[in-house]
Amino acid sequence: MAKIQLGVMFGSRTCEHEVSIISGVQLARAADREKYDVWPIYIDKDGRWYTGDKLLDIKTYTPFDPYAKGITRVTLDLTAGSGALISYQQNNGLFNKGVTPVTVCKLDCVIPVMHGLHGEDGTIQGLMELANIPYSSTGVGGSAIGMDKIMMKQVFRGMNFPILPDIFALRSQWQADPDAVIARVEEKLDYPVFCKPACLGSSIGVSRANDREGLRESLDLAFSYDRRVLIEKGLDRPIEVNCSVLGYDGETQASVTEMPTTASGDLLDFADKYLSGGGGSKGMASLQRVMPAPVGDEMVKRIEKLSCDVFNALDCKGVVRIDYMLTGEDELYITEINTIPGSMAFYLWNESGLPYPKLIDKLVEYAQKAHADKNENNYAFTSDILNGVSLGGKTGAKNGGKLGGKLG
């Protein structure tokens, strides 16, 4: 049986670029070569696409040399169903100047391993939909909502999911009258509060404010990363717990629940997640954690059910991770959903009895199933509406002619 041509896409124009590289290389190296021809697809910080086996070596990126042997610049053919990665080769003949397009491979499936904007936010998912290529992540709508913390909380609030009180502010409001923004926060929320850029992950730009001066500094930081900022009520030394969900179309299973830890007991920041202990090359998999989380069987069941409910509410696909805060009084609050989690949460699934290669198999399976479901939809509806339309005159003519027929 022919191998599946599997594209593993990572990088892109995002603050989480390096984190995505780690996650992407991890996955590409873990895929079963008996089943897949793996095509790493790296998108650099300027949006250029590359492929080649050299991209499987993490050292390739420090620094990245696009002209190195074993790296080919490519583009994606957006013709529906093509799946072709194309390179353009320079013609050297005397009478044949220019470039010739060459198909490097034809992708059967893509696993986006991208964190943050221009990848996890529905943009790459939309590109895959246009190109009609099976892909493993949550679709356009769920990805966009999951990326945007402000919209996400509005949706969760409407579904009666447990979330912390919050407000949001715009950079233009902050620049025009910072005191008014601070006054609005203090009117609605008690200290401490957390300020979070609306569309960033990996705790980048997130900080805690215990008083007015701290709030001013936190908002300055958050607005440097995003024009919209979420300000959320803080809790008194909560426990962070996370749970991953795998599935598609109502079929869901929850992983073991984890409790990430820090030496200080404080909430995790970017350095805790990716830089502590020299474990940066291992991404989220290097973080200290307790599995299963010691929160009691009943709470674990509650977290697992709520995680599956959130997964289904956003019509998720593939693997996600949902993060929570838990108080000493057993109050549980959703912090966020990561529709493409760091390291694809493989460490949670490995602990749950599903090794990384098997997890990748499930991602491909769900991608193909969702693609088959999409192709069952009827896109062939036709009408005679064009036969009844006359624009009249010539393009650009005075008065532009009249639109004949009735539309709508």
Helix amount, in percent? 25-40%
Strand content: 15-25%
**Count of runs of 4 or more consecutive helical residues:** 11
| Overall spatial form | globular
Rg from Cα: 24 Å
The CATH topology annotation of the largest domain reads as: Rossmann fold
Write down the secondary-structure element order: EHEEEEEEHHHEHHEEHEEEHEHEEHH
Structural class determined from secondary elements: alpha+beta
How many structural domains does the protein architecture include?
A: 3
Q: Mean pLDDT score, rounded?
A: 90
- CATH architecture classification of the largest domain: 3-Layer(aba) Sandwich
Distance between termini? 50 Å
Number of strands: 16
Task: Identify the strand order in the major beta sheet.
Answer: 6-5-4-3-2-1-7
Uncertain stretches: 273-280
The CATH class of the largest domain, by name, is Alpha Beta
Give the biggest beta sheet. 7 strands, mixed
Describe the structure.
The protein has 408 residues and is α+β, with helices and mostly antiparallel strands. The chain folds into 3 domains: 4-135, Rossmann fold (3-Layer(aba) Sandwich), CATH 3.40.50.20; 166-233, Dna Ligase, domain 1; 237-366, D-amino Acid Aminotransferase, Chain A, domain 1 (2-Layer Sandwich). 29% of the residues lie in helices and 25% in strands. It contains 11 helices and 16 strands. The protein has helices at residues 17-30, 123-131, 140-147, 149-158, 171-176, 178-188, 212-223, 270-274, 297-313, 346-351, 356-375, and strands at residues 4-11, 36-43, 49-51, 72-76, 84-90, 99-106, 109-112, 166-170, 193-197, 207-209, 228-233, 239-248, 251-260, 289-290, 317-326, 332-338. The chain has a 7-stranded mixed sheet with strand order 6-5-4-3-2-1-7, with helices on both faces. The chain has a 5-stranded antiparallel sheet with strand order 14-13-12-15-16. Strands 8-11-9-10 form a 4-stranded antiparallel sheet. The termini are far apart. Mean pLDDT is 90; it is low at 273-280.
